[in-house]
UniProtKB/TrEMBL annotation:
<comment type="similarity">
    <text>Belongs to the PurK/PurT family.</text>
</comment>
<dbReference type="InterPro" id="IPR003135">
    <property type="entry name" value="ATP-grasp_carboxylate-amine"/>
</dbReference>
<protein>
    <recommendedName>
        <fullName>N5-carboxyaminoimidazole ribonucleotide synthase</fullName>
        <ecNumber>6.3.4.18</ecNumber>
    </recommendedName>
</protein>
<dbReference type="InterPro" id="IPR029752">
    <property type="entry name" value="D-isomer_DH_CS1"/>
</dbReference>
<dbReference type="GO" id="GO:0046872">
    <property type="term" value="F:metal ion binding"/>
</dbReference>
<dbReference type="InterPro" id="IPR016185">
    <property type="entry name" value="PreATP-grasp_dom_sf"/>
</dbReference>
<dbReference type="GO" id="GO:0034028">
    <property type="term" value="F:5-(carboxyamino)imidazole ribonucleotide synthase activity"/>
</dbReference>
<dbReference type="Pfam" id="PF22660">
    <property type="entry name" value="RS_preATP-grasp-like"/>
</dbReference>
<dbReference type="GO" id="GO:0005524">
    <property type="term" value="F:ATP binding"/>
</dbReference>
<keyword id="KW-0658">Purine biosynthesis</keyword>
<dbReference type="InterPro" id="IPR040686">
    <property type="entry name" value="PurK_C"/>
</dbReference>
<dbReference type="GO" id="GO:0004638">
    <property type="term" value="F:phosphoribosylaminoimidazole carboxylase activity"/>
</dbReference>
<feature type="binding site">
    <location>
        <position position="81"/>
    </location>
    <ligand>
        <name>ATP</name>
    </ligand>
</feature>
<dbReference type="InterPro" id="IPR005875">
    <property type="entry name" value="PurK"/>
</dbReference>
<comment type="pathway">
    <text>Purine metabolism; IMP biosynthesis via de novo pathway; 5-amino-1-(5-phospho-D-ribosyl)imidazole-4-carboxylate from 5-amino-1-(5-phospho-D-ribosyl)imidazole (N5-CAIR route): step 1/2.</text>
</comment>
<keyword id="KW-0436">Ligase</keyword>
<dbReference type="InterPro" id="IPR054350">
    <property type="entry name" value="PurT/PurK_preATP-grasp"/>
</dbReference>
Length: 358
């Protein structure tokens, strides 16, 4: 009998973990940690997370006190950018120059890091929230002091991420690097399987292995990176399945969700088989249309959340075995969208075209 998996968090990631467990009869129980009522847990349940930070409630205390709770140290270190960046430095993993913004910080201290900085709240930021831009000559805001880190603004060429997993036996496996399009700090689209990113793969895998080994981590972890002049700098880590790995639902076997379930329940792990190129387009604060289902290779994942401006309410995966077919599908889907919404798909189309003609 496989153990049941309780998830701290009941958003779309927990929902998709549950969907991934269903075919194998693995029971996945997403739990809202903000509620007080305890969950009925069994002694051999495995507890894992879909978010890094949660409120202190009787339920969250119950879940984290359970002996099956995995990755307590990793989650604790990664949820605070101060300890996260310190970990990267300690492991000699490349990252943007930074400093802790202490309670007595002045603009002179900030200027030591760089002329242009990104100030990031240590805890709780996501989708670019809890961040400020700072330039030499501008004042430091009081609300940053003791609450933020300051990071050098990196004039990166592009953003990529590595999604991998480590098993109980220490085995690490990875997907190919994903190319990500962020706008205003939020992920709009990803392309998985690009050949031109292969030269960066070994460095990325080496770093993420080092991090997962140091944390004695089990499960899927994601590492977001900047690419600058053909080299990587790690931006941040996520001790969980990640939005930039959603394309694996369509273009890889197993998907990142099944890979995580395999890792945490000690089932066989191997390097996922990846079938060519895939595109993921995030539905941000917008509805979808059943017309899109006429596009071959187009899968809609709807999270059944209320639509609010900018909110991630679903994603669309596009995958077809042949590059020309994938290009045709992207073009077909883009034509069904209002002009203002097409740019992430056009970006993906351009990337695929460049990769296949290289
Ligand atoms: P979040 O937790 O909100 O994803 P990130 O640290 O990943 O926070 O920042 C969101 C986005 O903001 C990044 O994907 C990147 O586009 C931009 N960004 C973050 N840090 C820097 C930096 N040091 N230099 C340039 N851009 C940055
Ligand atoms: Mg990020």
């Amino acid at each position: 009998m496989l153990p049941r998996i309780a998830i701290i968090g009941n958003g779309q990631l927990g929902r998709m973990l549950k969907q991934a467990g269903a075919p194998m009869g693995i029971e996945v129980l997403p739990c809202d940690p903000s509620l007080d009522e305890p969950v009925e847990l069994k002694p051999d349940d495995v507890i894992t997370v879909e978010q890094e930070l949660w409120p202190d409630t009787p339920r969250s205390r119950q879940l984290t006190a359970h002996p099956g709770f995995l990755n307590a140290r990793a989650t604790q270190l990664i949820r605070d950018r101060l300890s996260e960046k310190s970990l990267l430095d300690h492991l000699k993993v490349g990252t943007a120059p930074w400093c802790n913004v202490t309670p007595d910080h002045t603009t002179e201290h900030l200027a030591l890091v760089g002329d242009k900085l990104v100030i990031k709240r240590r805890q709780g930021g996501y989708d670019g929230r809890g961040q400020w831009r700072w330039k030499q000559g501008e004042p430091a805001l009081d609300e940053w002091l003791g609450e933020c880190i300051a990071e050098k603004m990196i004039p990166f060429d592009e953003e990529v991420s590595l999604v991998g997993a480590r098993g109980h036996d220490g085995k690490c496996v990875f997907y190919p690097l994903t190319l990500n399009l962020h706008q205003q700090g939020i992920l709009h689209a990803s392309v998985g399987g690009l050949k031109r990113l292969q030269p960066l793969q070994a460095q990325a895998e080496e770093w993420l292995t080092r991090i997962m080994v140091e944390l004695d981590y089990v499960g899927v972890m994601a590492m977001e990176c900047f690419v600058v002049d053909g080299t990587l700098l790690v931006n941040e880590l996520a001790p969980r399945v990640h939005n930039s790995g959603h394309w694996t639902q369509a273009g890889a076997n197993p998907s990142q969700f099944q890979l995580h379930l395999r890792a945490v329940t000690d089932l066989p792990l191997f390097t996922p088989a990846v079938d060519g190129l895939s595109v993921m387009w995030n539905l941000l604060g917008r509805d979808w249309s059943t017309d899109w289902l006429a596009v071959p290779g187009c899968d809609v994942h709807w999270y059944e959340k209320d639509i609010r401006p900018g909110r991630k309410v679903g994603h669309v995966n596009l995958h077809r075995g042949a590059v020309a077919d994938l290009q045709a599908s992207i073009t077909q889907l883009a034509a069904l969208l209002p002009e203002d919404d097409r740019s992430p798909l056009h970006w993906a189309l351009h990337e695929i075209q460049a990769d296949s003609s290289a």
